Input
Amino acid sequence: MAETLHPAEVAKGAEGAVKDDADPNFMTSLARGLSVIRAFTEREPNLTIADIAKITGLPRAAARRCLLTLMQLGYAGSDGRTFFLKPKILALGYSFLSSAPLATILDPLIEQVSGAVQESCSAAVLDEDELVYIARAATKRIMSVGLNVGSRLPAYCTSMGRVLLAALPEAELDAYLARVVLKPFTERTIVAADPLRRELERVRERGFSLVDQELELGLRSIAVPIRAASGGVVAAVNVSAQAARVTCPEMEVQFLPRLLRAAEEARVLLVRSRGV
Output
């Protein structure tokens, strides 16, 4: 599994959700189907029924029914032994992107930033405990695993994630720190709640986050928040670069001003669109 880039176990959306089925409005079958879809990753595009059952925590019979249903609907296929997602699955994500003014607004802005600095630029939002990419312009592949719109990363050790966590109300941040396991991705990763909390306070004070090789060795990134008219943080935008090519001070000088301008332009456009 692509654990480096997808540490949130998919199982929490499967059997964890089943515990809530006392609610007559809760559809356990739908929750199971979604957990099966999320089990597929870039490194594991082909999975057996046993694989799906292990990843999601579902019984094999339930995993099989979900897969066969997805096949009948055209969202999945099979080579006789393993299953894989088909292009039709993209329609699910497109429904969000085409209806979300935030993603529509940010896409051309990050293209401009990426073109100007000649580095990869991305935008993301916080979903549950993870960072989810909603727009991305990549000049080159700088990580061991490729990132695309819809990719998920841990929030605590990424620049955009820290910008978003720093904007949470204190009670929500306390709850996040209480439930999330801070896994070390490199020897630089902050894996204790108190140091992370101090770093988030620093992010709030400075107005940006710079993460130096905490997610992956050789990777640095700098991010700023995107605010709505109300002042609330609705997303984050960042620039990532190889550590061997750009120092941390250079990132602040070369990338931060452009990110701040893009964030302000996004805020203005969001106000005009009345989307946020």
Notes: The beta strands are 76-78, 83-85, 120-127, 130-137, 152-154, 209-212, 219-227, 233-242.
